[in-house]
Amino acid sequence: MIYRRIYRIFSSLGGTGYIGRRIVKASLAQGHPTFVLQRPEIGLDIEKLQILLSFKVKGATLLEGSFKDHKSLVEAVKKVDVVISAMSGVFFRSHNLLLQLKLVEAIKEAGNIKSLEWPSEFGMDLARMGDALELGRVTFDEKMVVRKAIEEANIPHTYVSANCFGAFFVGNLSQMGVLIPPTEKVCLYGDGNVKAVFVDEDDIATYTIKTIDDPRTLNKTIYIRPTENILSQRQIVEIWEKLTGKELRKV
C-alpha cells in the first residue's frame, strides 16, 4: 500500500516558465509545502515577478538564491525534501540546461534531499534519442550530461517522459515552426501513420507531483502515456478536418 506523505517541494529552476508554473500550481493543489527559487537575475522581468507573487499569495514560499552564488543554492536546498527542475532547454528559446550541474553540486553538499525529482526533461525519453538530428540534438545531449552527473553523484531521482506537449504538437497539427493550425495544406511526415504520445501540460504537472508519493518511482523513468492520447499525425489531421468541416491538402 502507498501511504500519502507531505513533502517540502522546491521548484528550483524554471518555476515561472511554461511547464514550471504548472508544476508549482500542481504542488500547491496537492497540499505540499512548496518553495520557489527567486533569482536576482529576474531583473526587470515584470511578468515573472507577477507570477512569483501570485504563487506567494497561494501559499508558496519564495527562496532567494542564485546560480552565481553556490552558498545560496545550498541553503535553499537544505530547506526542502524534493527538488524539481523545469529549466528551459528548447533550442529556439532560452537554453540553460547545464546550469542544472550547479544544482547537482548544491544537492551533493546539502546532503538532505530525498529525491531530485525530474531534472528538466518531461518530453522524450533521452535514453531512446541517440539518433536524434540537429538542431534539437543539442537539447538531448545536454540533458544526458545532467543525467550522468546525477547518477554519478548517487542522488535519488525520478525521470518523467511525457513525449509531446499537446500545445506544441496538436493544435498546429504537428507543423514545425508554428503554433496555429494550417488553413489550406498540411505537411505529413512520411505517410503520417507513425504514432506518438500527446499529453496536456497540466496533466504532466499533476502526474509529476503525484509520483512523489509512490516509492516505486525512485530511480526510475515514469512514462505518461494515456491510451487515448496515442495518435498518428494523420489521425490528428482527420480530427481537425472533422471539427472544421474542411479537408486540407496533404503534402
Summarize the structure.
The protein has 251 residues and is an alpha/beta fold. The chain has a 7-stranded parallel sheet with strand order 3-2-1-4-5-6-10, sandwiched between helices. A 3-stranded mixed sheet has the order 7-9-11.
Describe it for me?
The chain is an alpha/beta fold and 251 residues long. It is built from 8 helices and 12 strands. α1 (20-29) packs across α7 (201-210). The chain starts with 8 loop residues before the first strand and ends with a strand. The model has no long low-confidence stretch (mean pLDDT 86).
Q: Key features?
A:
251 residues, alpha/beta, three-stranded mixed β-sheet, globular
**What is the 3D form?**
globular
What does the oligomeric state look like here? Answer: single chain
- The SS-based structural class is alpha/beta
Strand arrangement in the largest pleated sheet: 3-2-1-4-5-6-10
Number of strands: 12
Q: What characterizes the major β-sheet?
A: 7 strands, parallel
Low-confidence spans: pLDDT under 50, at least 5 residues?
none
% residues in beta strands: 15-25%
Mean pLDDT across every amino acid position: 86
| Secondary structure: helix percent | 25-40%
SSE string, helices as H and strands as E: EHEHEHEHEHEEHEEHEEHE
Radius of gyration: 19 Å
